[in-house]
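Long-time lurker. I teach an intro course on protein structure, and each term I like to show students one example going from raw sequence to a predicted 3D structure in token notation. This year I'd like something fresh instead of my usual example. Would anyone be willing to generate the tokens for the chain below so I can use it in lecture? Attribution to the forum is fine with me.
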Amino acid sequence: MDTSLDPAKLLADELAGKYPDERGRFGPFGGRYVPETLFAAFEKLEAGMKEHLHRADFQAELTRELSSWVGRPTALTHAAKLSKAWGADVWLKREDLAHTGAHKINNALGQAMLAKRLGATRIVAETGAGQHGVASAAACARIGLPCTVYMGAVDMERQAPNVGRMKLLGATVVPVTNGDQTLRAAIDEAFRDWVSNPGDTFYIIGSAVGPHPYPYLVRELQTVIGKEARAQMLAQSGSLPDAVISCVGGGSNAIGMFHPFLADQSVEIIGIEAGGKGKGLGQNAATLAYGRPGVLQGAYSLLLQDEDGQIQETDSVSAGLDYPGVGPEHSLLLWAGRVRYEAATDDDSLAALTECCRAEGILPAIESAHAFAGAKRWAKLNPGKKVLIGLSGRGDKDMPTLQRTVLAEAKQP
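-- Reply from a regular --
Happy to contribute to a lecture. Here you go:
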């Protein structure tokens, strides 16, 4: 990578809306590294996206569905007890209240609607924690397209309730037993399916990762989170927050929350990755904290890799954050110095989840609990200031994991 690139210019270009550029790059990151057999499919997707995504009739239909079916705008909740306990003014953007229980539905619905306009007759998707799979299954049922979801065998065990939900919504769930049997392997299998059926199949990718134009497309569909949150903060609290904090795996929830705040220089923006069990390679999924540049699944971004460039397996209590790469726009924002990325360990995140449950009567997803852990740390250093947390999803799906961890520990004498 060209390390001579000026961070200030990168940020200025980002704020000016120059990214992605004509090559699909966010500064040095992003791009399209795909087999020749897939190039035509990506060209078709990019052309269709440019034709439909910002058309008034498409946006009107999407807005109507987001309102009447998804339940937007989602609430902004003041967390009074957490505020008292942490010494800061804590606000929650409630994507857990969106239909199917997480932010994933914003993207899945938008892509499914786009797929139908492009003439697709079949949808494939992948999922880690299961929320994108559930969202894709629901969106496909809503618009009337068959859906096949690839899911790692390890994740299927960790997220059994969501596997059942996908099947009830009419999707075919295909277990992936290759590789690490988690999200990375599931994405590989979804791409293989699309390579084999590029003519009639649309691949709904679940995060702001992958080859261009997916990182841009997903960002555009998820910025509804940050746009709503910014307006709600001004209306309900009277000012912008001093800090915005979201969890980061692939990064769709975070980029959706962060993007509308990027130009607000008074707002500190912090992404919290999965710190797992520690800082060692293979012990976490904190790509931006510990990764190096490389190519994974069609895009140039920061990756967890060894000295030989081999992608490393990750470790996190959260299936949704357990990914060795990250969306290229996050890599740009790190490089440009606009967003700070930190890690929260499994233990700290599960403790924050428990605290949120008991203080606010809200069970957050384990992914979201990482943001709570980071926000608690920030609050202790910034007493009296105002922090907005992206509550990306609800934790019902995590009950099998919570039974083995938090609840099992609670039974011990």
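Some talking points for your students: The mean pLDDT is 94. DSSP finds 17 helices and 14 strands in the chain.
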